[in-house]
Amino acid sequence: MGKAPAFFVDDVQRSFSNGFDLKLKDFDSAVAVGNKTYVICGTDDPTSSGVRVLNKLTGEWVIPTVLGTKPESFKGQSCVLLNKDRILIMKHNSKSNESVWFLEVDTQFIRDQKKKLGTEVVSWSKGVIGNAKRPLVISGPSGVGKGTLINMLMKEFPSMFGFSVSHTTRAPREKEQNGVHYHFSKRNVMEEDIRNGKFLEHAAVHGNLYGTSIEAVDVVADAGKTCILDIDVQGARSVRESSLEATFVFVCPPSFEELEKRLRARGTETEEQIEKRLRNAKAELEQGRSPGLFDHVLVNNDLDACYEQLKNILGISESMNTVPTTPSKVFDLPVDFSLSKVNEKILINHGAAEQKVLDLSSMKGGAPGRTRGLEMYVL
Ligand SMILES: Nc1nc2c(ncn2[C@@H]2O[C@H](COP(=O)(O)OP(=O)(O)O)[C@@H](O)[C@H]2O)c(=O)[nH]1
Ligand SMILES: Nc1ncnc2c1ncn2[C@@H]1O[C@H](COP(=O)(O)OP(=O)(O)O)[C@@H](O)[C@H]1O
């Protein structure tokens, strides 16, 4: 069952002249993408990379660098190539949110990572049926009120929003908790993680390193929530240039004097740090208004009014909070099935009268390298 029949690559089993002694085992399945064959390993072995790549031109096998969290195990999975650059993998699982996975193999994100790491790269992401949310990126100078607005949003709509916890090399403030406000990191560790492709974006801000890890966004997306990223203008630009479809909001102060007043009143920085932040604020305010970068510019004069404007942008009102949100729709994948692709639809064939269909035209992005939402319906 479930061995991706139409997409199985016949020559895989004949091409084992390699140094890895890799065999296509019972539960493996394979998908050809251009000159390469990606073998998805049906294994319970947690140390397995989950994927091997055969270069059909050279006959060589490569174990790729694997980004994202790979599924714990697969056996009897079905695979299908989606759009030249990513593979859909499905398997019956009693936990419906563990049934659908994507493996990105040749998207822009993957090509960038390949260049950076100099190895073959693939990226796993957990599929979400019908529930991918467009992340919210909030930028603005230090002290303008970003954190305050985000806290209000998360407090009023706890089931709807989740915060992307960034990494930073700056020291924690008195009330900041590791893993909640930031992941506080040593510079050498963070630099190593950046080299290893763990970050979606990173930037040097006010003399420290800050970055959004792939995992930080994944955790929120896996919970079916809208991810909020509080990042600087450079970070917003990186995200804008990536494949992540987000809403970009820039928050301005009513005046420079007011910004300085708020920053001082917050009392979290030394005089030297305040001055550095104010110097940087001038450039940030200019960049924030540069055309095409932000979708919305808010002036945070009266806090409540600004918060209302933010909620309007997000299309939310108080009543929406009473609507329960679930991580994903109940998704009942048959035990025995095969997949086929017809135009923009994936057909889940399982010998019953009713035909389950996944609609690829509705596919929404997660973070770069993270395919996410698909609509499913029954014919
Ligand atoms: N590029 C990028 N910027 C970040 C990230 N996390 C925080 N920042 C930005 O770094 C700047 C400084 O943040 P922080 O030290 O918390 O100070 P605050 O903005 O004064 O509260 C702010 O502009 C944040 O938006 C991140 O992951 N990536
Ligand atoms: N509209 C506002 N009017 C007055 N003070 C504000 C307003 N918005 C935020 N503040 C205050 O300004 C300070 C800086 O806000 P904060 O959310 O920490 O900024 P950021 O996260 O952008 O650095 C905080 O003490 C906050 O209470």
Automatic annotation (TrEMBL):
Keywords: ATP-binding, Kinase, Nucleotide-binding, Transferase. CDD domains: GMPK. Its EC number is 2.7.4.8. It holds the Pfam family Guanylate_kin. GO terms for cellular component: cytosol. Residues 133-315 form the Guanylate kinase-like domain. It is an enzyme of class 2 (transferase). The keyword Cell membrane does not apply. Gene3D superfamilies: P-loop containing nucleotide triphosphate hydrolases. It catalyses: GMP + ATP = GDP + ADP. One of its GO terms (molecular function) is GMP kinase activity. The keyword Transcription regulation does not apply. HAMAP family: Guanylate_kinase. Belongs to the guanylate kinase family. This is Guanylate kinase 1.
